[in-house]
Write a structure and sequence with these properties.
Layout: E1 3-10, E2 15-18, E3 21-24, H1 29-36, H2 40-43, E4 45-54, H3 61-74, E5 80-84, H4 90-100, E6 101-102, E7 108-111, H5 124-134, E8 142-146, E9 149-152, E10 157-158, E11 167-168, E12 176-178, E13 182-184, E14 196-197, E15 205-209, E16 229-234, H6 249-257, E17 261-266, H7 279-286, E18 290-291, H8 297-308, H9 314-322
Parallel strand pairs: 1-4, 1-5, 5-7, 7-8, 15-16, 16-17, 17-18
Antiparallel strand pairs: 2-3, 6-14, 8-9, 9-12, 10-11, 12-13
Helix pairs in contact: 3-4, 4-8
Length: about 325
């Protein structure tokens, strides 16, 4: 029987109903787990640890570092890992860990629930049973298990607030589907040879979401002496206004003159940003803007933060950002 470590970080799955309201309860979640899902012991030899206990809205780079280091320190003792995490920022944490822990050869499966485990109609039991069983299989991925699907973590994004089918992987196929049997796909990564842990992230990143009539003057409030990267969530394939009062090119140029990286992503979840398709993208590329390619916003942000922490020269940042470091994108 495989040895699996279950790491608790909080989230809806760990909530209890108190006075009619769901609350995180770090004192009782362990006993609730044993009470609600005793059959987990039939799937694996399960060890349980609490790493931190937070609503996922409060999870940040310090939690990512703690979680990555916790797995790294325990890596040789277990055959696989399951991380219980809130759904709101689960894709961010899974993406961050894919950059912090490279060269993995064991499953690291994130899961959670839309409804607290203590509720009768919770999805927690199914998700957790699936995640533990997947963690015993040859799936050397940092992945998200939800609603009978397994997604690569840094290709995933939360798509629904209230549906059990909460996640999607817009630009990468499923890693596995769970039915009567578990069907693994051919898109699972090859196992790494040596685990490396580099859990540093720099939060000097600003995200700008474009919309028609966005006044570029409003962007003057961004202190480019502090920001090291600006991610612009543009239209379509990286398109943005470049005429009249709403021209965004002067802002891109200002960022680059301040040695601030500019990254163009898309508000469309599917397909890839291509800066060669339209004049605005071409002009931005000439100024040194980079394409987010087919990465999710979660992967784009966490990858940018991870690379910034290494204080790379401009050309090295560009090379690393456009490379496929952890299965997060198709290389340009």
């Amino acid at each position: 029987m495989k040895n699996i470590l279950l790491l608790q970080t909080g989230g809806t799955i760990a909530m209890q109903m108190k006075s009619g309201e769901p609350e995180l309860d770090p004192e009782t979640w362990g006993s609730l787990l044993q009470k609600e899902i005793p059959e987990l012991s039939e799937i694996a030899d399960l060890s349980v640890e609490k790493i931190f206990f937070e609503d996922s809205s409060d999870v940040n780079r310090y939690h990512w570092k703690l979680l990555a280091e916790s797995i790294y320190q325990r890596y040789s003792r277990f055959d696989g890992f399951v991380v219980l995490h809130g759904t709101d920022t689960m894709a961010y944490t899974a993406s961050a860990l894919s950059f912090a822990l490279q060269g993995i050869s064991k499953p690291m499966i994130f899961t959670g629930s839309q409804v607290p485990m203590s509720n009768i109609r919770s999805d927690a039991r199914r998700n957790l049973v699936n995640a533990v069983e997947l963690a015993t299989l040859p799936v050397p991925e940092i992945a998200i298990c939800f609603n009978d699907h397994l997604y690569r973590g840094n290709r995933s994004t939360k798509m629904s607030i209230g549906d059990f089918d909460a996640f999607a992987s817009p630009n990468y196929p499923l890693l596995a589907e769970v039915g009567i049997d578990i069907r693994l796909s051919n898109f699972i990564a090859e196992p790494g040879h040596k685990l490396e842990c580099n859990p540093e992230f720099d939060d000097a990143v600003h995200v700008v979401k474009l919309h028609p009539n966005l006044n570029p003057a409003f962007l003057n409030c961004i202190d480019l002496s502090l920001a090291k990267a600006v991610i612009i969530e543009a239209f379509g394939s990286g398109n943005f206004p470049r005429k009249g009062d709403y021209n965004m090119l002067p802002f891109v140029e200002k960022c680059r003159e301040s040695d601030c990286q500019v990254i163009l992503t898309s508000q469309a979840a599917y397909d890839s940003v291509d800066l060669s398709l339209y004049s605005s993208g071409t002009a931005a590329k000439k100024l040194g803007a980079l394409s987010g390619g087919d990465m999710t916003m979660e992967a784009t942000i966490t990858k940018t933060m991870h690379l910034l922490s290494s204080d790379l020269a401009d050309d090295q940042f560009k090379m690393q950002f456009e490379a496929n470091l952890a299965g997060e994108r198709n290389s340009d």
